[in-house]
Design a protein that fits this description.
By secondary structure, the chain is mainly beta. The chain contains no helices and 28 strands. A hairpin with a 2-residue loop joins β14 (163-168) and β15 (171-176).
Amino acid sequence: MPDQQSNQMWMMVSDIKFSPDGKLFAAAVNNLGADPITGHLRLWETATGKLLHIFAGHTDYVLRLAFSPFGEHVASGSYDKSVRLWNIHTGQHVATYQAHEGRVYSIAFSPDGRFIASGHDYTTIRLWNVGVGDERCLKTPILKHESDTSPIDSIAFSPDGQVLATSNDNIVRFWNVISGKVSSYLKLPGIGHVQSVDFSPNGKILAFGFAGSIQLANPFTLGTSFKKSESTIYSVKFSPDGSTISSGHGDRTARVWDVATGTVKKTFMGHENAVYSAAYSPDGKLLATASHDQTARIWDIESGKEVMRISARS
């Protein structure tokens, strides 16, 4: 963590994603030195690194972002209890979905683009109708010895849009989207937080990070555990072809893992602080990373070399 003096303008980058066509990428940037702390999204051109838009309006941290499946919009989720929708072509604010309680820790678009799911404090999930703006509130059934105030750290739709996977503390739940009910859950042994979940492209496997290792569920039964990384895992993401998984770590690295063997294929080193997000380009050739070190970076996966660095301070 930066010291108090340097924290006067410390621009943490908390999330990063490529657009569905790969021509753009967006990052969530937070000024930790502001009082109060403020966050926003920035949008760049992948080929040139040219800054196209800054999406500002939130009044607190912006932790997560998600592109709509057809690439027209990008959504941001904030500690100010709102989800905001932005037009990526005009840079204009389109809609605000305001929760009555609970900061937003995670967001995801449904595969058909009709809904945005958001994860909040108090183990609450909301499904927002993008076209209408109304919502359904899904309240997590609390298990024995489970806190009823823990946030939903991560959220992901299955590729067919019928299942929603969520995580809080050491529990992964699978929701039936139509009924809004939990169909099954996995309670992991030990102490820790599942900070990221992601479905494989075929929907048959769920990956998540827990207690320093990547776990695979198939999908409602715990299966393979990858080699322990000995560092906090902040993000996991399947490659477009499902053969590898990217991960962002507290030890300042990003990694690409082979799904078949559970071993590391490539480690990306260069960040000077924790890597909170690591996302593939749609063609699987590039990896984008977001870090507490105030930078967003693009890497060539085959060579492992950094090909672009964006300073959040500029």
